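Chain A, query sequence.
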Amino acid sequence: NLYRQILAENSGNLMRTQEAQAALDNLSVSRNAIKNVLRAQTLMTANSVRIMMEQETMMMGECPDRKKMARLASHMHSKITVKSIRKKGRKLLYSFTEDKSGNPFMLSCADQRVTIVN
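Chain A, predicted structure.
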């Protein structure tokens, strides 16, 4: 742990220990902010995929299969990878990864309705 190492090396210098703690706190805040931005970006991509899938579903009358989904994904501005498509009852569950961030997201499709799962 970096903080323990800083404490050990600067045990006699309270000011340096406080400066190091403040820097580590700032780093933690920045890391969390970046994670939040990446998650928001993934949700925006998921919403774009949802809209595209809904249009396809309404035009074709059924949820897209893997081949159609791969074709649709190749035409998107945001690059995504279709990880899996599996049937759960009447629903199809689509698992994706946003290539830029590596974040996963899922969509479900049933009764000509597509929803974001997570």
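The longest strand covers residues 80-88. The radius of gyration is 22 Å.
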